[in-house]
């Protein structure tokens, strides 16, 4: 059916959609269409469209259901959600752009679409992004009753680890002293504090520590959380022998910090040690490294050997939960 539509290059689609939405003139009874590199956005009143936009008649499809990106593309794209941000991971720029256009044209609630432009890199564990639609890289992520504000351009965060974080948080008892050595924006710290622990979160990334403080406030646990900006090896002097529970989620190099973890550990302390190893022996190297660092001062008891996820061909991201008991 021919209806009035604003016609724009797809590169301008998101900004135009926002402007028309703010003016409340998008016609929700018809689908946004993509054709020949341009978007056609149905409007309820052609006369109300700002003069800078091109209004044409277009044969738009009536909307009969919530349109997904797959409906627009004709195939099921791979992406993940982080709040109002849609994250794609495509080496092909044209395919990434097509997915972004489909997200914009769909009913998926998203303000921004980004494509991964680099691997996680550097001491601060951040990555580069190509922003394909929208502008804002800050989002609010929710998991298991907690809310996290973060900017993916400034901090590392993986929504894929929500189940693993919940597994660990469920072990926390009220009154514990817990220390997250690489805390980020607080995905372990906040749920630990909500379960009644006193928690210290340390991170090298100043932006992450800023978000950690804000997330403690957002979740009502700021009185239970101490957020520290710095190298945990320097911070440890203030917390020697303090911790009942320690999180070491830095899987590529956590073994470099085991001496520091032992300094932090109290007489009876559980360590959640994350590692990436070959599938033939995913747990042995980590357990050996922990024993080398902790014995003979502590007895080391392995509580859990847990596979978090597949990391790469024949490599696994694993967690070893161990208890250190002072001799």
TrEMBL record:
PROSITE patterns recorded: SAM_MT_TRM5_TYW2
UniProt keyword S-adenosyl-L-methionine, yes or no: yes
UniProtKB keywords: Cytoplasm, Methyltransferase, S-adenosyl-L-methionine, Transferase, tRNA processing
SAM-dependent methyltransferase TRM5/TYW2-type domain span: 79-326
SUPFAM superfamilies per the UniProt record, alphabetical: S-adenosyl-L-methionine-dependent methyltransferases
Gene Ontology CC entries for this record: cytoplasm
Name of this chain's protein: tRNA (Guanine37-N1)-methyltransferase
Organism expressing this protein natively: Halopelagius inordinatus
Organism taxonomic ancestry: Archaea, Methanobacteriati, Methanobacteriota, Stenosarchaea group, Halobacteria
């Amino acid at each position: 059916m021919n209806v009035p539509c604003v016609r724009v290059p797809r590169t301008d689609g998101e900004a135009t959609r926002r402007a028309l939405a703010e003016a409340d003139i998008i016609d929700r009874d018809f689908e946004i269409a993509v054709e020949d590199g341009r978007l056609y956005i149905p409007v309820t009143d052609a006369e109300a469209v700002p003069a800078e936009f091109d209004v044409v008649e277009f044969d738009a499809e009536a909307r009969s259901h919530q349109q997904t990106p797959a409906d627009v593309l004709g195939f099921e794209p791979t992406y993940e959600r982080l709040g109002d941000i849609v994250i794609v991971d495509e080496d092909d720029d044209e395919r990434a752009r097509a997915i972004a256009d489909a997200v914009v044209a769909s009913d998926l609630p998203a303000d921004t679409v980004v494509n991964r432009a680099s691997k996680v890199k550097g001491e601060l564990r951040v990555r580069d992004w190509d922003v394909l639609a929208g502008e804002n890289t800050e989002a609010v992520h929710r998991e298991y009753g907690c809310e996290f504000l973060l900017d993916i351009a400034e901090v590392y965060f993986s929504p894929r680890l929500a189940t693993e974080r919940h597994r660990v948080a469920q072990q926390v008892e009220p009154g514990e002293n817990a220390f997250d050595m690489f805390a980020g924006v607080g995905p372990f710290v906040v749920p630990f504090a909500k379960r009644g622990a006193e928690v210290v979160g340390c991170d090298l990334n100043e932006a992450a520590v800023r978000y950690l403080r804000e997330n403690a406030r957002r979740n009502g646990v700021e009185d239970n959380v101490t957020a520290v900006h710095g190298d945990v090896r320097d911070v440890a002097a203030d917390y020697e022998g303090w911790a009942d529970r320690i999180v070491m989620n830095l899987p590529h190099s956590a073994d470099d910090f085991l001496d520091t973890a032992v300094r932090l550990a109290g007489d009876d302390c559980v360590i959640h040690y994350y590692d990436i190893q070959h599938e033939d022996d995913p747990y042995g190297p980590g357990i050996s490294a922990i024993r080398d660092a902790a014995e003979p001062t502590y007895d080391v008891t392995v509580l859990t050997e847990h596979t978090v996820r597949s990391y790469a061909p024949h490599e696994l991201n694993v967690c070893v939960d161990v208890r250190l008991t002072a001799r």
